[in-house]
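Two proteins were folded this term; both appear here.
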Amino acid sequence: MSVPEEKKKLRNELKERIAALPLEYIQESDQGIVTNILAHPCYQKANTIFCFVGTPSEINTSLVIEQAFADGKRVAIPLCLGKGIMEAREIHSLSELHSGMMGILEPAAESKLVYPDEIDFAILPCVSCDRKGNRLGYGGGYYDRFLEQATFCSILICRERLLCEKIPTEPHDIAVRTVITEAGCFNS
């Protein structure tokens, strides 16, 4: 089986695992992950953070985003421009977001562009990952392309129950050095 086929099979298995997660666990893991993000030194030192907005099947990042506003940080959210291409755009409130590509909440196209060299800290999504920071995304390549230009501190967030022992990887996949779950922070 090729690596792309392995990834597709694993994504399908994980979708079933995600659908079976109890609501109580989801809420507890969201809170634990948010607590661990806010305690991370890169978050605390950052002036500008880049964070995805979680969908109902993902981690609720709105808690982190709201805290970043309260902490006086500049917040950038992904805006998908086309197949595999995204940019970071500044927002000042979650109310500025609207449903964009694939129903994901995004900033308006006219919102201010935030260049990668302006970002201090990035919070990245995944379907799953391993403790070495290899991520299984949704297959669009948006984050791998975005991370090619990264010099900022990045973390990958994942629920403990969705971690994998080993994620199949391809040469273009970019690992992230730090993984945060509700159980803590793990550096590869």
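Next, the second protein.
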Amino acid sequence: MMDPVHKNQNSDGYKPAVIPNAFKVIHGRKEAGSMKSLINQDRIVDRRAESRLEKRIGSMFIRVSDMKKAVEWYSRVFDLPYNNDYLEDRLSTVYTLHLDETEVLLDSNGEAAPSPQPLMFIRTDDIRSTLQFFKDNDIKIHKEVLENNIIIFEDPDGNRLMAIQM
């Protein structure tokens, strides 16, 4: 049986009472402390590093120059209803399009500057039908890459969007 003086030592008799100098150099610490305090301090740092952000997009903003025109266009593209009375009587500077898992916020606050890269991609189950819909509705097509099931198209402000069959 071990005597009480040696009960906290490991099998080869070593018991760190102070953080070894190597740990102080690695962690940039000058003050001495116990191994327990070093471990607890690292846990606190880890907790502060958590962003707490959800792994999904809540909303995205698209700048537009003409709200009425943008609402009509995006509603047609996404096959969404809109309230024409709302557009005529209480035109807002932000209009929300409710999609299945996110929202697209059309924003007319400030100057609209077209995005040269697609702002988002939207899935389709039939790229050729989508292409025909775009042509039938005079939607400007920037690029067709049908062998890869991709269409890059533009909204009325020149923002590029992408349709992909996956």
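The first helix runs from residue 21 to 27. The radius of gyration is 30 Å. These notes refer to the second protein only.
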